[in-house]
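Hi R.,

As promised, here are both runs. First protein below:
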Amino acid sequence: MNLLDESIVPEHARAVKQEAREFAVEQIEPVAETYYESGEYPWEVLEAGMSANLVAQDIAEEYGGRGFDLQQTLAIYEELYRADASIALTLQLASFGADIVYTHGTTEQAETYVRPVADHEQITGLAVSEPDSGSDLAGMNTTAEKDDDEWVLNGEKYWVGNAVEADWLTLYAKTGGGDTRYDDYSVFILPTDIPGYTAEHIPEKMAYRASKQGHITLDQCRIPESHLVGDVGDGFEIITEFFNHGRVDVAGHGLGLAAAAIEEASRFVHHREAWDQPISDFQAVRHDLAEMRMELASARSLAWRAAKHVIADNNPGYWAALAKTTATEAAVNCAESAMQLHGGRSVLKENKISRIYRDVRVPVIYEGANNIQRDLIYNQADWPWPWIELSSLLSGSNGYHRIRQKLTILWWHHIHPANCQCKGRISLDVSQSYYFLLLSVSRISRRIEFHWEDCQSVRPPLWCIQWHTNTHPSIYVHTFLIIDNSVHAHERLYNRILTLSAYQYHIHRWRRSYPIQCAAFSA
């Protein structure tokens, strides 16, 4: 039974998939239960993975890695996580975050820190989450303050892979001074041997026991200014882009775990007998197995499709969230069904299914809990753009302006670059000469400030609307913008745009101007 066959895998990723499968069978499966029981760090397996060139090989070839792309890492992870999730995560985390340094940092940074990881001389990790904040990337409190030619770090990080074992970490910290909360964060290289850095393992976990996460405390840690990765204020964008790729890899975690659950269930029901026949002969059991195969096949098809879209930078956040959520929840459902089919034996620690059942609870949480992923999926989906009647829009204008000339109507519905919350009436101070009216479909709970900003026009009489907002990313806009299209008004408004006072979030990369789809017609 080959649940993770290569028929769906691109040709260039098949060889490394086979390497990963052979390694998993030879090096991971025989010791998985032992490491689960002991909870020890699997140094021997990690070293074997390094020798097999399966660790840190997503690093670019110019810095010593094999340059694996997203499809190759997905092929690796679905095989490794089928064997054992906690050991597989240990192998993955050995270079976690290193690509941020060589993608956004300098050549000198990559040579100094990334190359030793690719050469298996060092291991690293990524420090983002904190004791009191996880999903809200713009809500972290660890600070980095500039002091002459150094950065001074203070705060705590939690759930940091290799916090104790790593030689250095990629750190996400608040530098402040940005126009919005999303501009307040930056990324740094953090050596773990500097004064003020302390780390301890998180107390014993019920799952992923062979993978070690830690709690970090930073107390007046000083690093040189050259340890800044990218520019000040780019951290939110850098980490968001990183997770778009990482969530497709997490889909691979779910696929491997789902396949393992199905294998365990199949092995049990085809050998277990009741009423003088294998229980696999019962229709209800067969239906359960069929449902499990359906979930895995659907999730796997989506994951591999998502990998193509993320590589092509085609709405990557949307596809990554789809793949991660679907695959990790397929793993949960398959493990639940497999436990039920095992009956009372499912709770025995000697049975692999009990370990799988615990492990599947983890990927639905890390790299963005699936509740958050559902927000991202809705916010970044391509929804239809319906038309409205001009008469219904103009009724009840409440005297903001008398509309006398020919109008161009721009309407947007659930625009989501950061989805400002609109629940109440917009408070807007508009010069009479601009002849425009802003109406809200619903009530507004917070004030939104607008200003005019120079920008190239798309094509008169439509204007490019560049969305920047500092409101929460799970909220939506229901607004109508009416701009006077008379000759004189057009002369005043040509090459101008309406801008919200903050930065774009999630859908497109920051600091670009995008024309939005809209309904436009004249009265």
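And here is the second one, sequence first, then its structure tokens:
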Amino acid sequence: MSLNHTFSDEKAIEFPDSPIPLDSKFYIQRLPHEGLAYAEIEKSGSLLRVKAPRKMGKSSLMLRLMNHAEMLGYRTVLIDFLQTDTAIFENTNKFFRWLCSNIARKLNLEPKLSDYWDEDMGSKVSCTLYLESYILPQINCHLVLAFNELNCVFEHKNITQDFLPLIRFWYEQGRQNKTWQNLNLVLVQSTEIYVSLNINQSPFNVGLAIELPTFNFEQIKDLAQRYQLNLRDNQIQELTNLVGGHPYLVHLALYHLGCDLITLEELLQTSATLTGIYRDHLQSLWIILQKEPELAMAMQRVATATESIQLEPMIAYQLYSLGLVNLAGNYCTSSCELYRLYFGLQLLKKNQDDAVKLKQLQQENSLLKALVYIDTLTGVANRRQFDHRIEIEWKRMLREIAPLSLVICDIDHFKIYNDTYGHQAGDQCLREVAQAIRNVVQRPGDLVARYGGEEFVLILPQTDAKGALYIAEAVRQNIKTLALPFKTDKLPHRPELIVTISLGVASTIPGVDAVDIGTLFLAADEALYESKNNGRDQVQLSSFLQFQY
């Protein structure tokens, strides 16, 4: 039975494959999120981040934000990184010159790059001066500069490490400089990039973040009426349950119903099949999962579970970034019935032998990782794991423009301890010291590793010097609490005849004070040397890497 006759000519309805035009009656506003976005645009020197999985309506909202800005008398520039040639990302100088030229031309200004570009000062400084001394004074009004699909930039690490800190700098300048208060920034990004980046937080965390929600029952009912569909409340609820309020999936369903291309019964029955209207959308998600076996296995657990389940936090966040699950605390559920049906079926249809082999392989890999990355004597991470993790955390803090601290610990006079009590006692001492350190350093993102011999290292992401010093001192005190006897004639005049530890601390925002990991390690090592040189059993902070909020 047809639900609609008014739109029998399907050309009367816009096919939902692109941003919804400004004059379209099919745009549904999502409050209070969009209200906050409009309010932020009106503030001087604001930075607004709009993020969501693909096809959640980010570009449609961005069009309206830009239109709102123009109605306020602001000038607007949209930079869409999806339309940017790959060659532009070859190096930072080329990228920033392209960006400045693009902004000027979109404002109908002559680029005049040669008047403001100074190779000796570098591309970041030149780009900043160009905006401050040329673009903003020339237009003499508010400028809304929007970057669409910022996630495309994250794929180019050479650009990201300079561009994101520069955006942050512009934003912070707006708090104290009247010229920069005329610049309002809008960053729009798809969250699927978090899967390939293998991170558990947003790569950029300044300004106001707006995460677009799905449609609720009333919004779907309103949209159905705009399509002039005569859907009963129970039918609206069936559609809501099927697609979880996903804007694109809702629009696609109502488009097909509005054009009499399918009945609601047929839509519901075929939705999760290869002949259903969602096949292209589902297959694109399936392709992503096939490239990430851990995500595929996790989604299978979610899709086949009868109640919410717990997943490893990184995996849960990546599935959430794809829009596949809803999170409630530490628990996950499928974000809609469509995904539960489709992925449950797809994953169960895989060859049983392959599934068994995959499980065995994962178990073997887990065992190998444990053997490869764990120090067998102390049970903490080993040098290999430290080298692996410090690189990951360096890059992650570089993206987030957040501090990373390193603590190097050394058991005082351990060689003499070994000579006095024997290697068996020395091994036991290492085990107890390692456990005492681990009892202090317990945050999920932190790492305790044995670097070699009697030396341990602590990786403390998102921790400034003040926090790192607090942790280091707690470690020192915890070692003393062990009260491991250490009596020897070789070390007279010691205040306490127990095992003690010396520590060196360094803290930096990667890419700011320290250009590489080696610089951070050297700073912590020199601080450790100072600790030993000043009498041991103490904590010293690096003299040149000591970032604090």
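A quick note on the second one: Confidence is low (pLDDT under 50) at residues 198-203. Let me know what you think.

Best,
J.
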